[in-house]
Amino acid sequence: MVSFEHFPKIDAHFHSTSYNPIYGKIALDYNVRYLNINTDANVFPSLEEQETVALTYIEKHKRYFSYITSFEMDGWESDGWYQKLFDRIKKSIQNGAVGVKIWKNIGMEIIKPSDQSYLMIDDLFFEPLFNYLSENKIPVLAHLGEPKNCWQPLDEMTSNRNRMYYANHPEFHAYLHPEIPGYDRQIKARDKVLASYPNLIFVGAHLGSLEWSIKELANRFDTYPNFKVDLSSRLGHLQMQSAKNYDGVRDFLIQYSDRILYGTDAYNNPEKLISSLHNEWKYLATNDDCESTEVSGTFKGINLPEEALIKIYYENAVNTYHGLTF
Ligand SMILES: [Zn+2]
Q1: What DSSP designation does 1 have?
Q2: How many A from CA of 115 to the centre of ligand 1?
Q3: Please, which of 6, 144, 224, 260 could form a disulfide with 2 given CB 3.0 to 4.6 Å?
Q4: Share of the chain above pLDDT 90, in %
């Protein structure tokens, strides 16, 4: 098998919101290409700025960069919002975007003025959007809900990484905000979209928020043929499971290797990108002893066969985001 550095990789969940030429060098050093994900999150710059940066990367390094556009929910309840949305998506696709990102503000932040309930992704309001994306075969990358731990108190979380994150971001820690719809409601709403729009090309970011159970994930893959997930920011949850159930996780990754996309979620952080590329390869492609914040002591790499690795690292992204030009 080709070495780590030469193995072709697509980081299908990458963020860079200011141009940095270092990513061009990393692309060459590690044979990696990037899907820059624009996101309607308040911790990110405006979507307009994110899109300008994404296009700058494509202009300068067309062979290594592509992007996924997104949209703001501001004014969603007013007339004309949908027309603006469709104009925006059309323009982005013409510019080279290969999909549309949906974020967890839907389901966890946005309130319906009519009855003060949370606007969920299975609300009929989104019917025109999903019909449009299905008909035009535009893939959606959906970060919906959060890790299950988000609804637990800090000391009951199963993941050190999740615990650190919610300790630093109490505003996103659903346990502290009981008004936010629960974990099961988030998953149910997403599943309903998968069932209602079987032709929608759908990637659940972050293991589709089912990071805690390969059984739950397998069940969704079997039920919804249009469902894929990316590994970004949640590989630790698979490591936790494989430390206890090595063969189970390995068999799962092989069986569903055409449904899983590699992604680092590195955000304006080239050092983190490089260390993720190294550490995650070690876990996925070797049987070396690995270490992670999520598991105490060492645990074995999962040592996937080359056919599974090439799908996860490269082919699935190409087959899902069919507009990719690199
Ligand atoms: Zn992300």
Answers
A1: -
A2: 31
A3: 6
A4: 96
Please report, for the domain that includes residue 307, its CATH number: 3.20.20.140
Distance 3 CA to ligand 1 centre (A): 27
Distance CA 37, CA 214 (A): 25
The residues near 53 (Cβ < 8 Å, ≥ 6 apart) are 16, 17, 18, 19, 36
Residue 276 lies in a domain: yes
Domain count, the chain: 1
Read off the pLDDT of residues 19-29 as tens digits, 9 standing for 90 and up. 999 999 999 99
Tell me the CA–centroid distance for residue 114 and ligand 1, in Å.
Answer: 31
pLDDT tens digit string along 105-164?
999 999 999 999 999 999 999 999 999 999 999 999 999 999 999 999 999 999 999 999
CA angle 239, 240, 244 (to 5 degrees): 105
Show the domain range for 184: 9-320
Q: How far is the CA of 15 from the centre of ligand 1 (A)?
A: 7
Task: Give me ligand 1 centre to Cα 14, in Å.
Answer: 7
13 C-alpha to ligand 1 centroid (Å): 6
Pairwise CA distance, residues 230 & 222, whole Å:
17
Q: What is the rounded CA–CA span in Å between residue 214 and residue 226?
A: 18
pTM of the complete model: 0.97
- Going from the Cα of 101 to the center of ligand 1, the distance in angstroms, rounded, reads 10
Does residue 2 form part of some domain? no
Å from CA of 202 to ligand 1 middle:
16
Q: Is residue 136 part of a domain?
A: yes
